Amino acid sequence: MTSSILLATLLCVIAPHDSTAPGVHTHDNYGHGTVPEDPAWERAPRSGAPVFVGVGEARYRWDSDWMKLPEGRKWLGGTHGCIVVDSADRVYMSVDSGPAVLVFAPDGTLERSFGEDLGPGLHGLTIVKQRRAADVGGPPMQEPEVLFLAHTTRQEVLKTTLKGELLLRIGLPAESGKYEDPAHYKPTSVAVAPSGEIFVADGYGLSWIHRFDAEGSYQDSFGGPGGKPQNLSTPHGLWMDTLGAEPSLLVADRENHRLARFSLDGEFLDGTDPTSGLLRRPCHVQFLGKLGVVADLAGRTTLIDDKLELIAHLGDNPNPSQRAQFAITPDLWRPGVFFAPHCARFNSKGELFVMDWNIAGRITRLVPAP
Question: Where are the domains of the chain?
């Protein structure tokens, strides 16, 4: 039985980062919270000439102005979450101010919003096209697409309709035996297998991947901290890879500077070389066909092929002191340069939407321009 997510505004101040906490990373708490707009914030002057990033067939036009915010709203508010795109090319994004989920039409207008009660801490968004009656038998699905939301501060995963109506709630996997202190569980991302099994990354906690059945019952865990190839350090983002003969799980293993691939039974299969320089601090990965994109917190977005090999780096910030920095105010924003890409997603046209981890909220559209 569905129920609507209750609406109630949550406000909080930015908390300092605790470098001694499990899942060490630079922006667990710092950067989660609503930040008052500074009237002095203004975007840096722009020449008006188009700006391009990438090369050859991996060349894109930089578009900073694709969103049309409601009158009276100049900035999104802090962005420390994710983006997903539905089958109609609507763009869903999580923000730290309420309502926490904003839905933009393909033309950039704000179509709807929900999640006033989700406030700071809504981190991961995943959109899943459910299997239809022709695939599994039974009556037609009334909700062919659904959302999964990973919430770090509420320590839970929510499955909802595209309008935010609650379908399923998955809390702390106490059965795993991994959490002597329940406060260490901080889920950041979700991936769903063709079978309906649900994989949850404890990216800001103890670095485990937890597997649940389609109804949310705990099954098992893999990954976790350590120095072996199968171990993880801040598994920040998940992607269900269905390109191969068998589906596999790609993990943006951020503080190990790599992508790691696992079977759906939790066996480590392969991954990128963390010493190659391909990835600095990967946050999320997604594929559109055989073209993949990785949001890299350390100042760039990277395109890869289906063999996980480099195609191009986009918007690489040449200033290391600005990489992975939350408090880059709009007067410092420059077309063609990222600061802290936290999520990147394709739409059906191959356009890219990139979220920077940012105090005012920065979402850039990259339009293919080979």
Answer: 3-9+33-368
Say if domain 3-9+33-368 classifies as CATH 2.120.10.30: yes
Contact 363, 79 (CB under 8 A): yes
Alpha carbons within 13 angstroms on the beta-carbon side of residue 316 total 11
E strand or H helix at 133: helix 133-136
Q: Point out which residues pair with 238 in neighbouring strands.
A: 251
For the stretch 314-350, pLDDT in tens is: 999 999 999 999 999 999 999 999 999 999 999 999 9
Q: Round to whole Å and give the CA distance between 8 and 79.
A: 20
- Cβ neighbourhood burial of 84 (10 Å; 0-12, 13-18, 19+): buried
Q: Which long-range contacts (CB under 8 A, 24 or more apart) does 256-260 make?
A: 256/232, 257/281, 257/282, 258/282, 259/285, 259/294, 259/308, 260/229, 260/232, 260/235
The Cα angle at residue 257 between residues 21 and 86, in degrees rounded to 5: 90
pTM of model > 0.90: no
Maximum alpha-carbon separation in the chain: 58
